[in-house]
């Protein structure tokens, strides 16, 4: 069991590093500007910019913000975080 967790940890770091890219891709697919998305989920536009640029790591995103993002973007939390793609 411990070996599975250790093997999983590097993959988790890869997923968190790419959450900004995933967020940008999902936002653009829906046709939202950063400002529009920020208004829809109730955060400043600068917060969207920081998430997308990776200045705020994905693991530091509040659950409520992640839930609102997923809902507005029409994806699950797993898809937003990259966990849907994880194969152990």
Walkthrough of the structure:
By secondary structure, the protein is an all-alpha fold. It has one domain: Orthogonal Bundle (434 Repressor (Amino-terminal Domain)), CATH 1.10.260. The protein has helices at residues 2-17, 19-30, 34-41, 45-53, 63-73, 77-81.
Radius of gyration computed on alpha carbons: 14 Å
Strand content: under 5%
**Which CATH top level class fits?**
Mainly Alpha
Structural category is mainly alpha
- Average pLDDT taken over every residue: 81
Whole-Å distance between the termini? 12 Å
Examine the secondary-structure arrangement and name the CATH architecture. Orthogonal Bundle
CATH-level-4 superfamily name = lambda repressor-like DNA-binding domains
The unreliable regions are 5-10
In the residues, how many domains can be counted? 1
Q: Judging from the principal axes of the Cα atoms, what is the shape?
A: globular
Largest sheet: none
> Given the structure, what is the number of helices?
6
Order of helices and strands: HHHHHH
Number of strands: 0
Helix content: 55-70%
Q: CATH topology, anyone?
A: 434 Repressor (Amino-terminal Domain)
Write the layout of secondary structure elements.
Layout: H1 2-17, H2 19-30, H3 34-41, H4 45-53, H5 63-73, H6 77-81
Helix pairs in contact: 2-4, 3-4
């Amino acid at each position: 069991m411990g070996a599975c967790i250790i093997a999983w940890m590097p993959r988790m770091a890869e997923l968190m590093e790419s959450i900004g890219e995933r967020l940008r891709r999902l936002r653009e697919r829906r046709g939202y500007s950063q400002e529009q998305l920020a208004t829809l989920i109730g955060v400043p536009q600068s917060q969207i910019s920081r998430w997308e640029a990776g200045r705020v790591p994905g693991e530091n995103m509040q659950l409520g913000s992640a839930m609102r993002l997923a809902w507005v973007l029409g994806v699950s939390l797993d898809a937003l975080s990259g966990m849907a793609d994880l194969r152990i």
